[in-house]
Amino acid sequence: MKISPLAPAQFPDLPVIAGVTFASAAAGVKYQNRTDVMLAIAAPGSAVAGVFTRSATRSAPVLDCQAKLGGDPSGAAAILVNSGNSNAFTGKMGVASVTALTQAVADLTAVPVGRVFTASTGVIGEPLPHDRIIAKLADLHKGQTEAAIKDAARAIMTTDTFPKGASASVTVGGKTVQIAGIAKGSGMIAPDMATMLVYIFTDALIGQKALQALVSRHNDQTFNCITVDSDTSTSDSLLAVATGASGVDVTGNADFAAALHGVMLDLAHQVVRDGEGASKFVTVAVTGAADDADARKVAMAIANSPLVKTAIAGQDANWGRIVMAVGKSGAQADRDRLSIRFGDITVAENGWRAPDYSEAATSAYMKNPELVIGVDLGLGSGSSTVWTCDLTHGYIDINADYRS
Amino acid sequence: MKISPLAPAQFPDLPVIAGVTFASAAAGVKYQNRTDVMLAIAAPGSAVAGVFTRSATRSAPVLDCQAKLGGDPSGAAAILVNSGNSNAFTGKMGVASVTALTQAVADLTAVPVGRVFTASTGVIGEPLPHDRIIAKLADLHKGQTEAAIKDAARAIMTTDTFPKGASASVTVGGKTVQIAGIAKGSGMIAPDMATMLVYIFTDALIGQKALQALVSRHNDQTFNCITVDSDTSTSDSLLAVATGASGVDVTGNADFAAALHGVMLDLAHQVVRDGEGASKFVTVAVTGAADDADARKVAMAIANSPLVKTAIAGQDANWGRIVMAVGKSGAQADRDRLSIRFGDITVAENGWRAPDYSEAATSAYMKNPELVIGVDLGLGSGSSTVWTCDLTHGYIDINADYRS
């Protein structure tokens, strides 16, 4: 598959996170000739936090992870992820697959079964051939190295056209703390809690509850602020693992919180940049709403509108469709106070087209691969920013014939 | 433009409605070489009811119609509609255009200005060149005939590929009452109150309040149950006109109510059949929900899901995406009670793929141009049926380069 034109130039150099090792393998769950399983193992005492899809039909691995979070943190922890099959809507067999996989990891690695977290991503409703994964566990265990995070990012891809990674380092009390994360996601992207599959590792020292609070808070401003197609996955999972190996306590540290936010936002943006068929990366920034919730309604109505997204694909400065999306959003809006900007160009204000509107200038702006749509409702101080991509023939091509 | 493959074989023979006349003309509002304005005039005493978009950015004509409904019914009534420009988000100039048009009709026809209803459909945010319409009013007035309803249906089209009409006749107390309706609509279809432009005429005798109650009730089960692209228009308007010329009082008559419902449903289905780029007409029938509202949430989540709609376009029996849509809908759902049918084929039940699922049989079914997706939530007696179409390359083609 052709790499998204919005992809970063290269996968970043991710720092080693002391206390975490990785390995990946080709288990042939569905895809051939590529890796499709990754196993990460974190040192005893690591704090593990997570956020997950709110879907009412969420998968067996998601339910298992949710039950395990916040348990006894004294043992080591493991994360086992496969692509090619989501183990969602697989009934009792799905639960049995999770039990078999987590027990097999525990037997092999001495990680307590209550600390073995799994995720599966791919087709919904097919039984997971977990024996194929179990057959690779010994190799995955033997092959653990600190440096293999990029291979892990590749192993969890489905329709992704590039692996996604991001990192940050923070100095706290003169000592350095490292954060590294990977993600997968391209379609079925409209997170309602967490999104897609995201794994973030840090050597910071922080308790489970404090880490969970940070992750939940940042999630609401990062992964919950992106949408590719308004469809919410049954498998969305984010896990953050803090090994404490740096010995640096970051509890309550604002710099660490900001760095973690940056890594999450970077990964969230990369998911949008790999949106199925995407040719434009679009920031929708809404201000002046009655409150933040209204601003988010407007931003998401714009970001999810097929008519807005196809106009952007066609490089058409069709600001009337922004008006439409504001109108349908359900948020409080006053036509005559609304203003709309494409980049720095004010296209509409005071309930009508801006007096110095230039079709030529606006059309030229629409040719950029990265666009900013600004909407000010003129009512209050509520604001929200979300990120999305356009809707192109590529999206139809991918989804009219891929059983995902 | 190629006519939708889902179009009816021909425009129906609509009955003459005693007390209503029509004419259409080419005013050159935007389109060239076609009619783009229609004027209908109804006899004095006609009851006029209507439902309109709930959009917060609804157009000047919508606001004017809403203000006029329920006024003094003693005079004649007029409906003036143009295509090519929606007069939405046109600020004070938009209001001035409505005033100019309604006053010009009143001056020419002796219809009280408070009974002149207008609608405009097409591009948002451009000033309406209302002088071009006013220049045609004398011709439109002189040309009024009872039989010209089909030409009126053509004049109000925008991206529609065929004109839409439907009719019914009902016998009440041994006498016949006629109903005839026309509609336009193809994209920006996700009604939240009424939808698109719909005009229904009857010679029945019925008061304004009784007619309004009927129209509002039926609207909720017809036009409010269709979606093409989840985008709600700024111009959606439905007007129903009862001239009373038959002398048959239908107040409280169940047969008349059913016939009116049938005409509205027929027109609603025709809008879906002309959905931009549509190749499949899809009925989504949800049963077993906790309540009707939950059933509707699930039905609309399925009908609006880009992943479901692209799978249908690809004739892919991808029922996993139905599971996804149920999960994201926000309705109460229990994975293990859910069952899914494509036509008569049960594809999933008891939280997993049906035991006798046949990929070949299901794939064969997906090749039909008309599909029924049945979902039973297994929780209660709530139900909802909605209608939609698939999402194809045609939708992208139309909307990536049409400034509508």
Automatic annotation (TrEMBL), chains A, B:
Cellular location(s): Cytoplasm
Pathway stated in the Swiss-Prot or TrEMBL entry: Amino-acid biosynthesis; L-arginine biosynthesis; N(2)-acetyl-L-ornithine from L-glutamate: step 1/4; Amino-acid biosynthesis; L-arginine biosynthesis; L-ornithine and N-acetyl-L-glutamate from L-glutamate and N(2)-acetyl-L-ornithine (cyclic): step 1/1
One Pfam family in the UniProt entry: ArgJ
BP GO terms, sorted: L-arginine biosynthetic process; ornithine biosynthetic process
Cross-referenced Gene3D superfamilies: ArgJ beta chain, C-terminal domain (3.10.20.340), L-amino peptidase D-ALA esterase/amidase (3.60.70.12)
Known catalytic reactions: N(2)-acetyl-L-ornithine + L-glutamate = N-acetyl-L-glutamate + L-ornithine; L-glutamate + acetyl-CoA = N-acetyl-L-glutamate + CoA + H(+)
One GO CC annotation: cytoplasm
Enzyme Commission number(s) from the entry: 2.3.1.35, 2.3.1.1
Catalytic residue list: 195
Membrane recorded as keyword: no
Site, Cleavage: residue positions: 194-195
InterPro entries: Arg_biosynth_ArgJ (IPR002813), ArgJ-like_dom_sf (IPR016117), ArgJ_beta_C (IPR042195)
UniProt: substrate binding residues: 158, 184, 195, 276, 399, 404
Keyword ATP-binding listed: no
Site (Involved in the stabilization of negative charge on the oxyanion by the formation of the oxyanion hole): 121-122
Keywords assigned by UniProt, alphabetized: Acyltransferase, Amino-acid biosynthesis, Arginine biosynthesis, Autocatalytic cleavage, Cytoplasm, Multifunctional enzyme, Transferase
GO function terms (MF aspect): L-glutamate N-acetyltransferase activity; L-glutamate N-acetyltransferase activity, acting on acetyl-L-ornithine as donor
Similarity comment: family membership: Belongs to the ArgJ family.
Subunit: Heterotetramer of two alpha and two beta chains.
PANTHER family named among the record's database cross-references: ARGININE BIOSYNTHESIS BIFUNCTIONAL PROTEIN ARGJ, ARGININE BIOSYNTHESIS BIFUNCTIONAL PROTEIN ARGJ, MITOCHONDRIAL
Function text: Catalyzes two activities which are involved in the cyclic version of arginine biosynthesis: the synthesis of N-acetylglutamate from glutamate and acetyl-CoA as the acetyl donor, and of ornithine by transacetylation between N(2)-acetylornithine and glutamate.
Name this polypeptide is given: Arginine biosynthesis bifunctional protein ArgJ
Name of the gene this protein is made from: argJ
